[in-house]
Amino acid sequence: MSSKLLLDDVPQASQVKTLNTLEAIGSRRSIRWYEPHKPVEKWKVQAMLEAARRAPSAGNFNGQRAIVVYRDDDPEIWEFISDWSQITTQMAPILIFWCYDLSGYDVQGQSIHDLMRTGALDKAHGWEYDRVSNLFPLPGLLPDAIMHRLAAIDLGNAIQNAILAATSLGLGTCLNGASGGARRNTKAKFQLPDTYVFSWLMTVGYPAEDFYGGGSRPRPPFENMFFYGKVGNPFPQDDKATNLLKDLKLIQEPAPKAGRLEELNRLTKRFGLGDEWLTDWKLEPSQQEHSTDVIGDKRFQPLSEAEVKATVPDNIQVDFELKPTVKREVIDKYRKEKGISEGD
Ligand SMILES: Cc1cc2nc3c(=O)[nH]c(=O)nc-3n(C[C@H](O)[C@H](O)[C@H](O)COP(=O)(O)O)c2cc1C
Q: Ligand 1: which atom is nearest the Cα of residue 213?
């Protein structure tokens, strides 16, 4: 297990700068452009995994599992990632394949006994050794769909802990979907036991784009999402609190920040992609952030060839060659030409 993209040094705690939780939540973006040659400290990867290990899980189920892969150990790995994530996957030095393991349910009774043993659960809350022994394992009581739902939510908690640890330590991450083929391939590639369900691939590395990804990404209005007492009755927001949250950097400047289009197109060229991959529409403020108008989805305003060219200087030096996205419409053809068979 070695990679020139990994650093072994472990600093003193006093040398480590971290973002606090609120600022890390507010600063986190899905990062889709990475510094492909910039090594990542191994201890930061360990910190992410430890953060995932510390996440809450229903009944202390602890089904979260992760397989870490270093890109330069397996440069072709992007070929079975879904199309919108292929170039992200080529750039990121570290990939983490997140799974949940249903076999945790076999020992969940023991795990709850352990919570009682160590003083997390007490008699006053109704916990008794024999009651727990009689109720668990849960799969005898609950249908499969529920077991998967619980395990997937637990995994989500763990992943988010890892993401926030990464953000707090200056790293970028993005979760990436994997197509049906990727799912099959992942099982074989990592020798996943039958009880493992592969869920998401996470890219990790130092952002090549702005750490703040050109601003915080659009969300529906707060009042459409959160209620007081009953649905439809918005949880009251206090302007003073909103301002405080801005000062604490939980709420940050919305996308697109000035210069974002230029940044995207500069990165496109820097990584060796042709002009046909330059983003050729005008960036504008979110349509959903301050409006309930979700059906008024307007086409973007196209930019002329000259306007697109003007977003990026001619003399950009290419320092990493990305293989262009193979769109899902043609992936079967691509795989056939490369001699990659189903299940490889
Ligand atoms: C479970 C999950 C899967 C995702 N899959 C992809 C993906 O395949 N490709 C991608 O570019 N982004 C993916 N994302 C990132 C989302 O698009 C992103 O979280 C969302 O647009 C909000 O932007 P933000 O994360 O920068 O705030 C995924 C996010 C989650 C939580």
A: 26
